[in-house]
């Protein structure tokens, strides 16, 4: 597709309004997107960001206003129409088919075909070859014939990105593209994003990672309650100003870390090994400690966590809780021994999306709400009310399926579940993935609440700033093993990245 000259207005929304059940998700919004520019759309969950990009992508049609493409009114009646106009979208929720291969997903809806006019059978050889070329060009090492459902969340995100970029597009919409990526993959994606910008593409970038926004984008627009409340450009882009616009007040402490570590070892493991990727991992976690896992995607962080929780079967290794030997063969054993696990994908592995908050919270300890042989639904509701109040969860969670809650509220429902289970060790795998700054601070305060109460946290995060700020000690993971343990307060982000990559050596702590 022919690219216009740099910084011309490519897409424009004029007085656009979108309403869902009497709620104005977009309220008379006017905004321009220029080519050769990375334009960040920011705001808390529910501010209207996703609704705006879905209007441009043809998923929603506005009730009022108009969308212009190169100065002409565009009737974007479907995603197919948007794609023909050069719009490529990477949604936060994957649009992949898990039972198909990587190459089939990349070319889904436009499979190359043999014969005159492309009306013949699918040209499988060409599809595999073209997918391999695109993946190689992007520096993504994934087998094009791999079934998507067998890939990690991070690898699926890379496939989603490849799928969007494979389209000959002039506008790229990126909705939380780095949410599931590690630091090295983020660097790779940012380099690619800048290259697309320099080639004359327009890029709409949505992220809750404000540090990467400040580093990457050329322009920021902040939305709140469906309206544009402000923005900044160039050198005026900074975290403090963005937070002020988003929240309506200053958040002086983005990482409200408390130091609550005690000497007592709450959990110890030796030589944890599974067929899925834990290879002789050994660790000890202290009472009240936040013990971080640092490593690249595929390093084995999640695999060690799953071994601790019994989600993957142990081939060898031993574990203790408070100096007492435990045998964890399945998750039920871990729960009985006070171990909780918040998985990195709360939607597929963490929540029953069609349940209210009460059933989601009580599910792991049903015996606490049993009356004889039956569930006491009155008690279940009472438990839900208690945790909604304690964790400041939206009151709508009591009578709404959790699928309708924001990401931050969903995460707090999962945390409430494990508090109800009387857990002592909380494994938090990417706990702030895809949630806004205000919800992140609430999760960090919940971590403080846990450690203050003598609970321990095993924190897995691809956000190195978060990992460094909220951890007491950091375990560097590679190949399913823990290579070294560091004091989080004594290193910075750049040093940690060098250590993860194996380019820097630092003394361990006990």
Number of strands: 22
What is the percentage of strand-forming residues?
Answer: 25-35%
Question: Could you name the ranges where pLDDT drops below 50 across 5 or more consecutive residues?
Answer: none
- Side-by-side strand order of the widest sheet: 6-7-8-3-9-10
Oligomeric state, counting identical vs distinct chains: single chain
Q: Mean pLDDT across all residues, rounded?
A: 87
Total helical elements? 17
Distance between the termini: 58 Å
Please outline the major beta sheet: 6 strands, mixed
User: Looking at the structure, what is the overall shape?
Assistant: globular
How helix-rich are the residues, as a percent range? 25-40%
Whole-angstrom Rg: 24 Å
How does the helix and strand content classify structurally? alpha/beta
Can you offer a commentary on this structure?
The structure is a single chain. The chain is α/β, with parallel strands linked by helices. The chain has helices at 49-56, 79-84, 102-106, 124-138, 153-165, 183-198, 210-216, 239-247, 301-309, 331-336, 346-350, 357-362, 377-390, 407-420, 437-452, 464-470, 493-501, and strands at residues 9-20, 23-34, 37-42, 64-69, 72-73, 87-90, 171-175, 202-206, 219-224, 227-233, 265-274, 279-286, 290-294, 314-321, 324-326, 339-342, 370-371, 374-375, 425-429, 456-460, 473-478, 481-487. The strands form 5 sheets. The protein has a 6-stranded mixed sheet, with helices on both faces. A 6-stranded mixed sheet has the order 16-19-20-13-21-22, sandwiched between helices. A 4-stranded antiparallel sheet has the order 2-1-4-5, covered by helices on one side. Helix 14 runs parallel beside helix 15. The longest helix is centred in the middle third of the chain and has 16 residues, at 183-198.
């Amino acid at each position: 597709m022919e690219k216009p000259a740099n910084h011309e207005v490519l897409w424009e929304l004029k007085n656009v309004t979108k309403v869902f059940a009497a709620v104005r998700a977009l309220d008379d919004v006017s905004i321009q997107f220029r080519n050769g520019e990375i334009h960040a759309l920011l705001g808390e969950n529910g501010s209207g960001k996703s609704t705006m990009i879905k209007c441009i992508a043809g998923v929603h049609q506005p009730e009022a206003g108009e969308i212009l493409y190169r100065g002409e009114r565009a009737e974007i009646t479907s995603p197919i129409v948007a794609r023909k106009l050069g719009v490529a979208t990477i949604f936060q929720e994957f649009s992949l088919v898990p039972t198909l291969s990587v190459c089939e997903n990349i070319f889904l809806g436009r499979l190359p075909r043999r014969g005159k006019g492309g009306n013949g059978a699918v040209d499988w050889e060409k599809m595999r070859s073209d997918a391999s070329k695109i993946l190689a060009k992007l520096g993504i090492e994934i087998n094009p014939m791999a079934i998507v459902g067998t890939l990690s969340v991070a690898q699926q995100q890379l496939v989603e990105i490849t799928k969007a970029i494979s389209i000959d597009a002039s506008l790229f919409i990126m909705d939380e593209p780095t949410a599931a990526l590690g630091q090295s993959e983020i660097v790779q994606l940012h380099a690619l994003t800048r290259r697309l910008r320099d080639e004359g593409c327009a890029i709409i970038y949505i992220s809750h990672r404000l540090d990467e926004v400040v580093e990457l984008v050329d322009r920021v627009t902040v939305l709140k309650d469906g309206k544009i409340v402000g923005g900044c450009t160039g050198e005026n882009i900074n975290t403090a100003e963005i937070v002020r616009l988003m929240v309506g007040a200053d958040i002086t402490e983005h990482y409200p870390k408390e130091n609550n570590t005690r000497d007592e070892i709450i959990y110890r493991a030796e030589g944890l090994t599974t067929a899925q990727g834990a290879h002789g991992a050994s660790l000890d976690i202290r009472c009240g400690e936040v013990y971080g896992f640092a490593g690249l995607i595929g390093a084995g962080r999640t695999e060690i966590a799953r071994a601790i929780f019994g989600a993957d079967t142990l081939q060898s290794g031993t574990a203790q809780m408070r100096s007492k030997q435990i045998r964890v063969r399945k998750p039920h054993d871990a729960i009985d021994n006070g171990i909780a696990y918040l998985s990195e994908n709360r939607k597929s592995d963490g929540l029953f999306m069609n349940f209210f908050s009460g059933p989601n919270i009580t599910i792991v300890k049903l015996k606490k709400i049993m009356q004889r042989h039956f569930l006491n639904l009155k008690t279940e509701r009472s438990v839900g009310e208690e945790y909604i109040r304690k964790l400041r969860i939206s009151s709508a969670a009591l009578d709404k399926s959790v699928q309708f809650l924001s990401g931050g509220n969903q995460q707090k429902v999962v945390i409430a579940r494990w508090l109800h289970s009387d857990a002592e060790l909380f494994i938090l795998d990417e706990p702030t993935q895809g949630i806004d700054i205000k919800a992140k601070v609430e999760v960090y305060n919940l971590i403080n609440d846990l450690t203050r109460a003598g609970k321990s946290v095993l924190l897995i995060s691809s956000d190195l700033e978060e990992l460094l700020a909220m951890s007491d000690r950091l375990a560097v993971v590679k190949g399913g093993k823990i290579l070294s343990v560091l004091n989080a307060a004594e290193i910075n982000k750049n040093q940690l990245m060098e250590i993860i990559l194996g380019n820097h050596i630092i003394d361990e702590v006990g």
